[in-house]
Write a structure and sequence with these properties.
- Helix content is 31%, strand content 40%.
- It has 144 residues and is of the alpha+beta class.
- A seven-stranded mixed beta sheet has the order 1-2-3-4-5-7-6.
- The model has no long low-confidence stretch (mean pLDDT 95).
- The longest helix is centred in the first third of the chain and has 15 residues.
- It starts with a strand and ends with a strand.
- It is built from five helices and seven strands.
């Protein structure tokens, strides 16, 4: 049973969120550690997927007027392919919509673009490099 909660950077769960992000981005994917945490973490709403009290998935939502930007989506290696990412993204879309966002944008790792496409996100623009990983911008209009 997975529970998703919305937290802020001051929440005690953030240490587990940061640990998961470090495991996925820095250790697994080779993202430089100094790029993993940034100023947006202070203002973002963070989602944590919990299983038996452990953080097994996360993402963050940063608001820019009527647009919500999702980033830092990570699911622990042993929890992947179980729908956790989909649950996080659906929760994030509902939260963004109820908070007044009209659309969501995200920079998807190129290898994950089909996952986001299945959730209604549309690729925009060319492939670009972010922290040594190929990405594409994707957008989804929210129904009001």
């Amino acid at each position: 049973m997975t529970t998703i909660v919305e937290i802020r950077v001051t929440d005690p769960l953030m240490s587990a969120v940061y640990a998961l992000r470090r495991e996925v981005f820095v250790i697994e994917q080779g993202v430089p550690e100094e790029l993993e945490v940034d100023e947006n973490d202070k203002v973002a709403a963070h989602l944590a997927a919990l299983s038996d009290g452990h953080v097994i998935g996360t993402l963050r939502i940063v608001r820019h007027e009527h647009t919500a930007k999702i980033g830092r989506m990570a699911v622990s290696a042993n929890s992947r392919k179980k729908g956790i990412g989909r649950e996080l993204m659906e929760f994030a879309a509902a939260a963004a919509s109820s908070d007044g966002a009209q659309e969501i944008i995200l920079a998807a790792q190129f290898t994950a673009r089909e996952f986001y496409g299945q959730l209604g996100y549309v690729q925009e623009g060319a492939i670009f490099d972010d922290a040594g990983i190929s990405h594409v911008m994707m957008r989804k209009k929210l129904r009001r």
